[in-house]
């Protein structure tokens, strides 16, 4: 799956992942009204609204980008109907041949991490049958519990030829409180990064490992250091656009081959029609605004990489 | 809710939480056969089996213990039907007046952490209606992303008079890889513990704060240090029993008032009938074996505390 991701990035010339993190207030009124007319102002109505919203965006951008990253929290808040919308979104994106990165940030110990891995990238046994509960291609994993927490994901990923992205340095303002602490003279994110590199050596694709890292766009100097520390690691970069990161900040997240990083934008793509820049599209054509935002992001990133 | 938890612990003289982490192979054949006869060997069948299994245990122990801790990973692996079983379990335990600690170990940034908090301890707005998606009383939270990731949970908990337990030092063998790293001369778990103490000061109950900590039973010396560092923090202690912790190791997790800690046992209670010690009960009476295991655990803990 890492090979597929790399090939799609090369073919489309687009190191871009669209974050499908729908807030209900991003969903245009015409979609909400239709969903609520059918299901009422209920969790089912909310689930239907975000699913229809997602479908419009996926249809509009699926020929431009290699991957999507649905953030499960945004679905989980609507309970079972929200998680049904998450599953429909994952399945639909896979039909459209998009690589699906489940942004789930799970992490636990031993058999419990194994159960999360089974849920999202593996198969569960029930009697004589096997089922895939959610079936993303990659998931994000929290490393705070150490190797015990991460290894069960890697074991399942080896069987399934799937992968993970481990949180190393997150994009938020307070990420440094623990991640930047100096331990043995090195910030914790470097220690975690080094482990990601090691874990990756046990599960390599053709040119990159199946064990990626999350490094926020908002800390470009740290991105540069981590790029060198983890040469075979794909870096998933959140924080572009709405959180402040821009293309020129991100060139050092890439390797000399022009690969090695994939940049996420969520609000900047899915709620583009709410920005002044794309207001001309209007709420009805929200998906066309998302398409234009992807094209602009691609130009920004490729321009920055060309001038590297 | 922390006041209710403390009162129940005092009234029942039982600082015990039963971990409802059902593996399908813990479920006795008679329950599985019935569930599969009705729903087939499907995710629905698995969901029904673990729900019926849980119900039996809850009925057998609910008068002895103050709280349960369902581990959501064990349900998530069965997809939507598994999560429906999680929800049924949470709702049923609340009907039985048990305090429900959702072991979800979520953690993200800003609005995303807010969405997780909404999902599990808050209310989500859909049009003019509000809904509770899952509705636990407490949840466990991963602190790796810093204050940005934890504060949204505390904000929701303040409104709802609910609480969290923050992972500080986990019970697994590799927990030290990152958590024990010395930063500014102190192990990371102490730095996180200090933050938990601070976060808790903003959301206090009568005698303890609504912001608890997870500290594994398998590291008693660390438990002693953290107890002193976080005097108003309730400590949730996993790792008793199956993972190796025993009552005499745990006396220093408690304060002089005999309070301040609640000890979790999962396999040791819910799969008690599979142990030689309780084999006499047999699979049909698995819930009676669980009840006996709770009584024995209570005796072990109270004995250790009396001899403190």
Number of strands of chain A: 12
Ranges of chain A where pLDDT stays below 50 over 5 or more residues in a row are: none
Topology-level CATH name of chain A: TIM Barrel
**What structural class do you assign from the helix and strand content of chain A?**
alpha/beta
Shape of chain A: globular
Largest interface, C-beta within 8 A: A-B, 72 and 72 residues
- The assigned CATH architecture of chain A is Alpha-Beta Barrel
Helix content of chain A: 40-55%
Strand order of the largest sheet of chain A: 1-2-3-6-7-10-11-12
Work out the strand percent of chain A.
15-25%
CATH class of chain A: Alpha Beta
Distance between the termini of chain A: 28 Å
> Radius of gyration of chain A in whole Å, from Cα?
19 Å
Number of domains of chain A: 1
Q: Determine the number of helices of chain A (DSSP H or I, runs of at least 4 residues).
A: 12
Write out the CATH superfamily name of chain A: Aldolase class I
Q: What kind of assembly state do the chains in view correspond to?
A: homodimer
Instruction: Provide mean pLDDT of chain A, rounded.
Output: 96
**Major sheet description of chain A:** 8 strands, parallel, barrel
Pathway (chains A, B): Pyrimidine metabolism; UMP biosynthesis via de novo pathway; UMP from orotate: step 2/2
GO molecular function (chains A, B): orotidine-5'-phosphate decarboxylase activity
Family (chains A, B): Belongs to the OMP decarboxylase family. Type 2 subfamily.
EC number (chains A, B): 4.1.1.23
């Amino acid at each position: 799956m890492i090979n597929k991701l790399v090939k799609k990035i090369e073919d489309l010339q687009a190191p871009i992942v669209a974050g499908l993190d729908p807030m209900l207030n991003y969903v245009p009124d015409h979609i909400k009204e239709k969903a609520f007319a059918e299901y009422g102002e209920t969790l089912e109505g909310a689930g239907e609204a975000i699913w229809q919203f997602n479908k419009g965006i996926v249809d509009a951008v699926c020929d431009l980008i290699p991957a999507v990253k649905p953030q499960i929290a945004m679905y989980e808040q609507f309970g079972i109907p929200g998680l049904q919308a998450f599953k429909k979104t994952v399945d639909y994106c896979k039909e459209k041949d998009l690589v699906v990165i489940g942004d789930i940030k799970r992490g636990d110990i031993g058999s419990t991490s194994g159960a999360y891995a089974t849920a999202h990238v593996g198969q569960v046994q029930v009697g004589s049958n096997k089922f895939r509960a959610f079936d993303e291609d990659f998931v994000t994993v929290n490393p705070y519990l150490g190797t015990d927490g991460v290894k069960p994901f890697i074991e399942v990923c080896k069987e399934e030829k799937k992968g993970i992205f481990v949180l190393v340095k997150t994009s938020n303002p307070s990420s440094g409180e623990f991640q930047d602490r100096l331990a043995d003279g090195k910030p914790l994110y470097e220690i975690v990064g080094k482990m990601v590199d090691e874990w990756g050596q046990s599960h390599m694709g053709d040119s990159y490992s199946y064990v990626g890292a999350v490094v926020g766009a908002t800390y470009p100097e740290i991105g540069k250091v981590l790029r060198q520390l983890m040469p075979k690691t794909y870096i998933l970069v959140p924080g572009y656009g709405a959180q402040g990161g821009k293309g020129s900040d991100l060139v050092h997240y890439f390797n000399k081959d022009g690969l090695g990083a994939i940049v996420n934008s969520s609000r900047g793509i899915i709620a583009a029609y709410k920005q002044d820049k794309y207001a001309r599209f209007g709420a009805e054509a929200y998906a066309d605004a998302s398409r234009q935002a992807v094209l602009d992001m691609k130009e920004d990133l490729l321009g920055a990489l060309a001038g590297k």
